[in-house]
Design goal:
The chain has 182 residues and is mostly helical. It is 69% helix and 0% strand. The protein starts with a helix and ends with a helix. InterPro entries: Lambda_DNA-bd_dom_sf. GO terms for molecular function: DNA binding. It comes from Streptomyces vietnamensis.
Length: 182
């Protein structure tokens, strides 16, 4: 790889860090490890071709162009967390990955398919997941926790918010959200 290619790759990885919180190679390798996949299976679940996934991982491409693929990545990240904490078994994870693969984006991890109330208003869980997705698209969990630690002495409530929504479990964030309404 010549200097121009190295520079382009470094720039793509830096853009990925700003858009997705970390370079996609690191994110995808973690999903592969955490969910027991190989690169071809990950590509099949997410939707892009295996060569496209490889280009994203290597930094030859910077951006995931399809928003549904970005949402599937987020769904797999949450699934990996749930597998790691034991709330989802390996067998359930396989079924859920098939659901993610079939999805057009959005959360497929909730047991009910509803994302809105009868009035059309978003559910608390949906609002919380949007907040989590936004924070996690800006920075990696470790960076969010570091920021929370820096804020804690002067702004403990903001630090708690960052920890709960930026690096915590969805159930804890829902409880936090509900406790701060009214």
């Amino acid at each position: 790889m010549d200097a121009a290619q190295q520079e382009a790759t470094a720039r793509a990885r830096e853009l990925q860090r700003s858009w997705y919180g970390e370079p996609l190679g690191a994110l995808f390798r973690r999903l592969i490890d955490d969910l027991g996949l190989n690169q071809a299976r990950l590509a099949a679940v997410l939707g892009p071709s295996a060569p496209m996934l490889s280009q994203l991982m290597s930094g030859q491409r910077a951006k995931i162009g399809n928003p549904a693929v970005v949402q599937r990545v987020q769904a797999l990240q949450e699934l990996a967390v749930r597998v790691a904490d034991g709330s989802v078994s390996a067998a359930e994870a396989t079924d859920r990955m098939d659901e993610v693969k079939k999805s057009q984006g959005g959360s497929v991890l909730t047991s009910s398919g509803q994302t809105t109330t009868g009035s059309g208003a978003p559910t608390v869980r949906r609002v919380v997941r949007e907040i989590q997705s936004l924070l996690r698209s800006v920075a990696a969990a470790g960076d969010i926790i570091d920021a929370a630690d820096s804020l804690a002495p002067a702004h403990p409530e903001l630090a708690e918010f960052l920890r709960v929504y930026g690096a915590g479990r969805t159930a804890d964030a829902v409880a936090h959200y509900e406790s701060h309404q009214n």
